[in-house]
Amino acid sequence: MDSTPPPSSASPFDMVSSALGQYMPDHGPAAAAGSAGPQGDDAARRDVSADPPPADQEQILGAVDLDRDLRITRWNLDAPVFAGVEAVAGSPFVGLLPPSDVPTVTRRLRQVLETGEPHVARVQRLRRGDGSELVVSMSILAAAAPKEGLTVSLIAMARRLHLYAAETAIGTSLDIGETAQSLAESLLAWGDVTAVDLDFAVWTGEAVTEQPQGRLRLRRAALVPDRAWPDGYVTPGDDLPGDASRLLSQAIRRDDAAQAIVIPDREAIERVLGSPRLVRALTPGDQAAAVVCIPLVLDGKPPVVLGVAEVWRRADRPFADSELFDLQELVARTSHHVDLARQHQREHTQVLALQRRLLPRSGGDTIQTASVYQPATPDSAGVGGDWVNSFPLPDGRTALVVGDVVGHGLGAAATMGQLSMEARALLSAGLAPDEVLEHLDETVSLLDDVESGLAAGYSALGSTCCIAVYDPVSHHVEVASAGHLPPILVPPDGPAGPVGIRPHPGLGAEFALREPYDVHAFCAPPGSLLALYTDGLVEDPALSIDEGIERLTDAVSSVHPWDALEQAAQRVVSAVAPPRRRDDVTLLIARMIGYRKEDTTTWRLAARGDAAARARTLVSQLLDQWGTGEHTQDSVLLVVDELVANAVRFAGGPITVRLIRTGHGLLCEVGDTGNGRPRLGPGGLLDDAGRGLHVVHGLTTRWGVRWTDTGKVVWASFER
């Protein structure tokens, strides 16, 4: 055996051949570079017999180098276990595989070639020249620079090694579909076609705590190999016919205990299934003549059946007793992986349901909104705390909110839901964006207080949030941010770019770092676009964060005024999102519309005794001009009279009266310089204090207060 150490720039092929040489003979240049000489070289074979390996060493390793066209360039398959596996220089590697495996393996090879990420421990069959097959564990590695291509390492599978490798491969994903697919691929070592059918409750992640009553409702979760199937055959994602589910559940639950069953020939299959329709649904072709069905059982009292694994063979390959034992052992070992994936599927579904519930439904009549949310990975661990929301405020304005909660999974989702609902409630109560962020900051600090018992091992410190409030009358937007990336503003005429918000620490920062939140106000005329987003959209390892924001600005600027906003948002994400994401991607785009000039009027009145009468006259003239009904007009005049009189009595300063004609009603606003909050009192007949607010309360559909830098605004809405 050649013990010469490999060079420092050794390729994966060299490392497999040299570092693990004690498991496989290496015959010098002829074997190490198969393309340079015939692999059947007599001198090389004489070396094997002249210097045999120790008897206690099982020779199980081999290596094959491929070029970028997936053709063999060199190989080392001299271990006796690979006898009959005929590698030929220049021939496609997939020529060593059963035809049914070619599409799947080709896809895996090209994936490693494109991404550079290895594919490890795939259970695979190789064809021998005599028609028999060898089961191996196949790993695909990218060639070391400067070489191009791939190295495929092959480990001949002894029984125990096969079971270990299969269980290891099955347990690498938390996605239930991928887990079922890995199990089906591992079972293929014992058959020609394998399938995994899961109980519908398992597939959807529902709780499975006891033996369900009646039959299982099965859905096909995985099918191997990947090829065209006969018409009527059940493929992944399809539900098995009700009769088929009933037959399988009855068969594996004989005497109330889940057991494997074997149907040894085609005649028995047709007799058991009973109808041509079920034969077409469950039999993967005319050559399939024998099947073993193994239940996936979750240990417990009583045990719970999660589904059924099926292994099909041709008529000339009956199942031996030892093979049935191996199949049952493998399925038994991996059932807990399926249940673990079910639990994560359940969490994944819950988190996504919460996030989609927080996505904007409608922005109201004065603004158009569209949002996109894409989790970083399909499994539940990859679902993060990104959230966006847009909603009309009771006073006619619209709030746009985006946040990014630290962490993933249910802990982040619970915090995300709490912060989102709290922000909506506070904004609807009339608080300014900076005041809302102050409350959210306190909430995050409270959630991280271990003594409060709310944290439960999860910390939301450092979460970020950005709030924008759009006034459709003045066309002004107020924005406040807690550690979040700045929104992108694209005005109808003028340069586009990020809004100039002063940086601020995230929510829950230490007391010494806390500063008052700034509110940045700017004009967004009708037709303007405002984009709020989370960092997953613009963070690309190949670019700086500023370059990512610039790319987003260009993409949003390309949205045409007549483009449908939903499709435009999808295009922006497709153009900007990093190809290999490490974080969730969230985008909210808003198109400002506002009110028409003829739908709103504002008056400024001096705080004098005749202010209420003057306001009634002005409002009455405008309502006549708008053609408002007499009943609505009387209600509006009474409310305006009461609110202006209260402003003169309790506040003073200049009084602003604004009337807005909305799509479904009227909105009246009275602003003053006072800081007292109007409240409904007991309202007795002889109690004058607060009695006017009872009048307002009875005549309006809704009323409230919002605070401004100079005082407050009391607003009231009416139906027309």
From TrEMBL:
A Pfam short name: SpoIIE
PPM-type phosphatase domain sequence ranges: 367-592
Skewed-composition ranges (Low complexity): 25-41
Keyword field: ATP-binding, Hydrolase, Kinase, Magnesium, Manganese, Metal-binding, Nucleotide-binding, Phosphoprotein, Protein phosphatase, Transferase
Reaction catalysis annotation: O-phospho-L-seryl-[protein] + H2O = L-seryl-[protein] + phosphate
PANTHER family (UniProt xref): STAGE II SPORULATION PROTEIN E, STAGE II SPORULATION PROTEIN E-RELATED
Main function: Primarily acts as an independent SigF regulator that is sensitive to the osmosensory signal, mediating the cross talk of PknD with the SigF regulon. Possesses both phosphatase and kinase activities. The kinase domain functions as a classic anti-sigma factor-like kinase to phosphorylate the anti-anti-sigma factor domain at the canonical regulatory site, and the phosphatase domain antagonizes this activity.
Protein known as: protein-serine/threonine phosphatase
Originating species: Streptomyces griseorubiginosus
Upper lineage: Bacteria, Bacillati, Actinomycetota, Actinomycetes, Kitasatosporales
